[in-house]
Amino acid sequence: MTVHGLFSSKSAAAARASAIPRIAIVGRGFSGMMTAIALMKIVRTPFHLQLFDPNSSVSGGQALSTTRASTILNTRVRDLSVSKGDADDFNDWLCSNAEFRAAVPAAIPGFRQIFVPKDIFSDYVYQRFSEAFSARRDISVQVCPEPVVAIRRMHSGRFLLESGSPTNPLFDIVVLATGYGLPKAEDRAEDPSPVRAQRLVARPHTVLLGSGIRVVDQLLQLRDTGYGGQVTILSRNGFLPQRHTPNSADPVFPADAMPGNLSDILRFIRKACREAEAEGRSWQSVMNGLRKHARSLWRSLPAREKQQFNRHLRAIYDSHRNRLPEAIHARLQGELASGNTVLRRGVVGRQGLGGLFFRPAGSGADEIVHAERVLDCRCRGPQLTSPMIASLLDEGLALPDELSLGLAVDQYGRPCLDDGSVVEDLFAVGPLGLGSLPDIDLVPEIVSQAYAVAEHAAERVYPCSRAI
Ligand SMILES: Cc1cc2nc3c(=O)[nH]c(=O)nc-3n(C[C@H](O)[C@H](O)[C@H](O)COP(=O)(O)OP(=O)(O)OC[C@H]3O[C@@H](n4cnc5c(N)ncnc54)[C@H](O)[C@@H]3O)c2cc1C
């Protein structure tokens, strides 16, 4: 759904003319939409909300808009509620959806444990956004289809956002929800340009770069649209996503104190997984339990161990936390077993005239891979070099985290500075805080953070404005 003219019923000009607080959200992917919902529910006094994003689709960030909308999300319905304090909200929404109920009768009376396609989740988020907006006659929402290129703080403490519009007014609160940044032109291309050495390819051959859920998504999309050629997955680490368990995998974790260094922590987690399996539970339950401890654990690690984790363990951690529904995992395994899809570990180099340079793991020499197309499915991290983030760094309004994975932020997403202070009224929600807050790229964590930001914002704009 596109947003042009969507919110014209409430006049932004009226808001500009008055002294009501002005809040900007930069990015309208899941994090931006979720923060908007939380603000509309939590901040009880009037405000003006302005949403910036050149992407024309609502909630059109990477997770919910790329590749097939019918792709199955890898998180269960029970963990995808956008309603604070009502974990069943998404399940209830599905139960009230006659079309969905008719299509998935086996899951009646509830859908908590199942996995649903992205487009259904996207519809749910958008409906909750529309409902939250309809319930507020006292706020105005304006959508700006422009990227924000710079943010500056004025002497008054308010923020100036520079975008394509020459007349942006000042904002009291700014939420950065730019996730993985603006898509590059080549990411948007429907039909990526072929490798020039096409004539050398004996059988149709596609190369996929990466090994996360986007690779699996792309592979199954190719097969579902009738592609019968060879597929080669080239990945630096070779860790494909693990599978979910058919059981509910409720979180469990040992109550014992966690050790203080990385190798002992690893041993501790492996032992916990073995013990859980011996007791008839699953390692997936332990991973779900670990997520609840991830933040305090991450905070306690010295910078050197964080770097070690990033270099050697992050890919393994990601493959165990971003799990595939069983049926999809079985399809992936079937592909690999058939030999029609091959996974190769190593380092991908440049794409030359003769093909793609690739150095297999353990080899000292490059080889050239020929294919009629190469699809890059690697998930980029947040772009610290984007003009908007660069302006924040220049202005001293933010710093990169220790690993430069994103911005250094506190639990609300407020930028942390070298002197131990935080920047008030500026919040980074979602993956921009990934180097400070583990798992903040996942829906449940983004939902909690969005409500925490809204509560904090409510106190900042009017100290008594929180919902009771
Ligand atoms: C394929 C895929 C599947 C996933 N599946 C799941 C799942 O099943 N469960 C789960 O928990 N998590 C899942 N995730 C992770 C999670 O959903 C995402 O991390 C989350 O949705 C991040 O959303 P976001 O809005 O922060 O970022 P993005 O989706 O990247 O959206 C950012 C938005 O900001 C805009 N933007 C960027 N820069 C600017 C700028 N300067 N000015 C204006 N606008 C700007 C972009 O155009 C974009 O629309 C998945 C992720 C991917 C990629």
Provide a compact summary of the structure.
The chain has helices spanning 12-17, 30-42, 62-65, 89-95, 98-103, 118-134, 185-188, 213-224, 262-278, 283-300, 303-321, 326-338, 387-394, 443-461; strands spanning 22-26, 48-52, 140-144, 150-153, 159-162, 173-176, 205-209, 230-235, 341-352, 355-360, 367-369, 373-376, 426-428. It has 468 residues and is α/β, with parallel strands linked by helices. Helix 2 links the parallel strand 1 and strand 2 (48-52).
* Uncertain residue segments: 1-17, 189-199
CATH superfamily of the largest domain: FAD/NAD(P)-binding domain
Main sheet: strands, sense, barrel: 6 strands, mixed
Number of domains: 4
Strand content: 5-15%
What's the pLDDT, averaged over the residues?
Answer: 87
The CATH class name of the largest domain reads Alpha Beta
Q: Assembly state here?
A: single chain
**How many helical elements?**
14
**Computed Rg:** 23 Å
The CATH topology of the largest domain corresponds to FAD/NAD(P)-binding domain
- For the record, give the distance between the C-alpha atoms at the N and C termini, rounded to a whole number: 33 Å
Helix content: 25-40%
The outline comes out as globular
Judged by helices, strands and strand pairing, the structural class is alpha/beta
What letter string, H or E per element, gives the SSE order? HEHEHHHHEEEEHEHEHHHHEEEEHEH
| Ligand identities | flavin-adenine dinucleotide
CATH architectural name of the largest domain: 3-Layer(bba) Sandwich
Number of strands: 13
Q: Going across the major beta sheet, what is the strand order?
A: 11-10-9-8-7-12
InterPro entries: FAD/NAD-bd_sf, HpyO/CreE_NAD-binding, L-asp_N-monooxygenase_NS-form
Keywords: Plasmid
Organism: Rhizobium grahamii CCGE 502
Protein name: FAD-dependent urate hydroxylase HpyO/Asp monooxygenase CreE-like FAD/NAD(P)-binding domain-containing protein
